[in-house]
Amino acid sequence: MHANWTDAIEETLIAALLGLMTLLTFANVVARYVFNSNILWALELTVFAFGWLVLLGASYAVKKGMHLGVDLVINAVQPRARRVLGLVSVACCIAFACLLLKGGYDYWAVFADLPPTEGRWFPLGFPETFRSQSFYEVNDIPLPEFLRFIEGWLLYPGDPPFEKVPKAIPYAVLPLSAMLLLFRFLQAAWRIWHGSTDRLVVSHEVDDELAETRAGARETE
């Protein structure tokens, strides 16, 4: 039950982002070639939506085992060695996700009026002072009225109100997606450790497609 509703949320969000990108692109084409006009903020919003789609989709693909992988070596060794290789590979992925999380948070934090972490590779604490960039805005997307409440968080007394969306909003996907990716890799490590699987990538969509193609070819002979 838990997996079903979380899958539904992630799949709905990914589908909504894809639909938004398609709708914006189509509307902008119609505006340009039919009405000789332009939706100024459509391109930038499409770029941000694509970024959210890719970053959130990456963690969902880990959850479903849909990333591409080469299992030639794993299939050539004994089951016990497969498990060891699986743990090594997922450990590398966890380390990579940790680096992404640090980098993503540090990049986003200054836009959200939060201190970035210290340390080049690993977080070693927070600085006593930092240069906030919470007043930075995107280039074209106007700030909707229902998001005006965020000004109380990001702006200081005397700062002018936002005209465009603050960068803290679209760039929030960087630490969010990195956290999800790390969580999915930890889940995969748990499954490998307890023996429910022996590898990180478990899907064989290409093999399935080839098998279906061969079966269809035999039926037509």
Relevant terms:
221 residues, mainly alpha, two-stranded antiparallel ribbon, 7 helices, 60% helix, 4% strand
Provide a count of the helices: 7
Helix content: 55-70%
Counting structural domains, the number is 1
Main β sheet profile: 2 strands, antiparallel
Unreliable segments (pLDDT under 50, ≥5 consecutive)? none
Q: How many beta strands in the DSSP annotation?
A: 2
Shape summary: flat
Question: What is the topology, as strand order, of the major beta sheet?
Answer: 1-2
Distance linking N and C termini? 44 Å
Structure classification: mainly alpha
Beta content = under 5%
What would you note in describing this structure?
This protein has 221 residues and is mainly α. The chain has one domain (2-220). It is 60% helix and 4% strand. The protein has a two-stranded antiparallel ribbon. Helix 1 (2-33) packs antiparallel against helix 2, helix 2 (42-64) packs parallel to helix 6 (173-193) and helix 4 runs antiparallel to helix 6. The protein is flat and about 65 Å long. The chain starts with a helix and ends with a helix.
